[in-house]
Amino acid sequence: MRTVLSWSGGKDATYALAEMRRADSVTVDGLLTTIAADTERSSMHGVRRELYERQAAAVGLPIEFVTLPSDATNETYERAMAGAIEEYATRGIDSIAFADLLLEDMRAYREEQLTDTDLDGYWPLWGRDTASLATDFAERFDATVVSVDGDLFDPSAAGRAFDAEFLATLPDEVDPCGENGEFHTFVWDGPVFEERVGVTTGETVTRPVGDGEFHYCELLTPNEPAR
After folding, report:
1. N or C: which end of the chain has fewer CB within 10 A?
2. Of 179, 224, 186, 220, which is closest to residue 59 (Cα–Cα)?
3. CATH placement of domain 2-122
């Protein structure tokens, strides 16, 4: 089954890639992610396109970007994704994989968007226990927490390593995998990487998101000046 993986650059997507590479029935053809046209960053992670490109090269896969306007509506997003899915179908791709773990409404939404397309949905992590997955990931991979919900975290949480210590200090209401969007990560080394992605942490900034705010830690490449 030729598959494209919906890619956030974070722990769940990376763990999904590791699981898919272990499955004889699946071939991962590439990665797909969305970025904002004006900033060339992921809106929720705050990660720059350049870092996604370096990350994709390190895991040995091509990456393609769906670029969205800064004022993109859900309808705009759906049109853009539909175009990307149609293009993949013409190349003989069979399915698109998502790293969702437990949110039934999110899975139902994705399935609905694929209903009239030639691609199937594939969920390699679906139903996994988030606490055990987070613990296993922290033991085997290296990742940095790049953004956190300001209603749940102090700004100092952005830029921390995603490790056993971070997991031990999570508030009770936060899912260990951040499955409800409580925090996001960027993975820079681990079993699926052919080489590590060198990154350092820079300034942390706070920006409004919806009715709240998120704290974002800038990731820099080695020797890159702070932004």
Report:
1. C
2. 186
3. 3.40.50.620
